[in-house]
Design a protein that fits this description.
307 residues, Pseudouridine synthase, RluA_PseudoU_synthase, RNA pseudouridylate synthase, PsdUridine_synth_RsuA/RluA, alpha+beta, eleven-stranded mixed β-sheet, two-stranded antiparallel sheet, PsdUridine_synth_cat_dom_sf
C-alpha cells in the first residue's frame, strides 16, 4: 500500500512520488537519484543537503541508504510559466463536485510545461481544495465547462460517467460557412494519435469516433455550429470539423500544424466552447444540467486576421 505523501502541495501541485526499484546495486539513495533523475548531480546533492527529499517518515539525510521498493517524495522545480490572464469562474459547487468555466489557453492538469498554470493547480490553491481531482479532460485551447470532484472516495463514480458516455456534452464552434455542406450530419471515422505527434489523424478501419454537427446561425462567411460528440477521442471535434472542410477558426493544428505562438500571445483563442454538461448525478440520482456563461469572440476572424 502506498503511504500518504509526507509533503504538502505547493501552489496546488502535488509532490513528485518515486517508487524505488525492488532490486539494484546502489549503496545510497543519492546514487540512484543521480542515475534516474534528468538533472545534474549537483541538483540532487543540493536537494538532499536542503533535506528536500522525503521518505514516508520525513526528510532523508544526504547519505541515506538505498531502500529497495521504498518511496521518496520531493517537489519538482516549477517551470517559468506565463500566467493565463483569464479567470476561472465557478458555475456550481456542492459537497461533491465543482463545475467551472475554464478559459482558453489554460490546461486542465499539470503536464509538461504547464504545471502551476493549470485549472487543477489554480483551483486547489485558490479555493483551498487540496484533494480536488478532474472528472474528465478538456483541451487546453478549448474553453467552457470543466468538472472536478471534491472528495477522493467519489472520484471513480464521477469519472465513470464520462468513461461510460453517460454525460451529454454539447459544444459550440465558429468556423467558415460552406454552402454545399448538408447539415445536420453525423461524422464517423477512425482516429489515431501517436505519442509525440501534435495532431491526430483519420485512418481507414472501423470507426472509433462519432460527432453530430448542426448549423446554428450564419453571419457572412462565418457560421456558428453545435457539436455533439458521441465518443471522446483526442481532438475529435477539431479533426471532424476540418474533415468537413470547415476547420474551427484559429485552430493551430487542423488542417495544418502552425508554429507555436509566443507564450504570452493570447490573441487568437480557438473558437471552440464546451457549452453544456447534462447527466444524472451518480450519488444523488438528481438530473444535473450546466451551461457555460462564456461566449466565443471570433465572429470577426477570417482565418488570417487577429482574434
Amino acid at each position: 500500500m502506498v503511504p500518504p505523501a509526507p509533503l504538502p502541495q505547493r501552489h496546488g501541485v502535488d509532490p513528485v512520488r518515486l517508487r524505488l526499484p525492488a532490486e539494484g546495486g546502489w549503496a545510497t539513495l543519492r546514487d540512484h537519484l543521480v542515475e534516474r533523475l534528468p538533472v545534474p548531480s549537483a541538483v540532487v546533492d543540493a536537494m538532499l543537503a536542503e533535506r528536500a527529499v522525503f521518505g514516508a517518515d520525513g526528510p532523508l539525510e544526504p547519505d541515506a541508504p538505498f531502500t529497495p521498493g521504498g518511496y521518496v517524495w520531493f517537489h519538482r522545480e516549477l517551470p517559468d510559466e506565463v500566467r493565463v490572464p483569464f479567470p476561472l469562474t465557478v458555475v456550481h459547487r456542492d459537497d461533491r463536485i465543482l463545475v467551472v468555466d475554464k478559459p482558453h489557453f489554460l490546461a486542465m492538469t499539470p503536464r509538461g510545461r504547464h504545471v502551476a498554470e493549470t485549472a487543477l493547480a489554480r483551483l486547489r490553491h485558490e479555493l483551498g481544495l487540496p484533494q480536488l481531482s478532474p472528472a474528465h479532460r478538456l483541451d487546453r485551447l478549448t474553453a467552457g465547462l470543466a468538472m472536478f470532484v471534491l472528495r477522493p472516495e467519489l472520484r471513480g463514480a464521477y469519472q465513470s460517467l464520462f468513461q461510460e458516455r453517460l454525460v451529454r456534452k454539447e459544444y459550440e464552434a465558429l468556423a467558415p460557412y460552406r454552402a454545399g455542406l448538408v447539415l445536420p450530419c453525423t461524422v464517423r471515422s477512425r482516429i489515431v494519435k501517436e505519442r509525440g505527434e501534435l495532431a491526430a489523424r483519420e485512418v481507414g478501419g472501423e470507426p472509433n469516433s462519432e460527432s453530430r454537427v448542426e448549423l446554428v446561425e450564419r453571419r457572412g462567411p462565418v457560421a456558428r455550429y453545435r457539436l455533439t460528440p458521441l465518443t471522446g477521442r483526442t481532438h475529435q471535434l477539431r479533426l471532424h470539423m476540418s474533415s468537413l472542410g470547415v476547420p474551427i477558426l484559429a485552430d493551430p493544428l487542423y488542417p495544418l500544424v502552425l508554429p507555436d505562438p509566443a507564450p504570452d500571445d493570447f490573441s487568437r483563442p480557438l473558437q471552440l466552447l464546451a457549452r453544456r454538461l447534462d447527466f444524472t448525478d451518480p450519488v444523488t440520482g438528481v438530473a444535473q444540467r450546466f451551461r457555460s456563461a462564456l461566449d466565443l469572440s471570433g465572429w470577426g476572424l477570417d482565418g488570417a486576421g487577429p482574434g
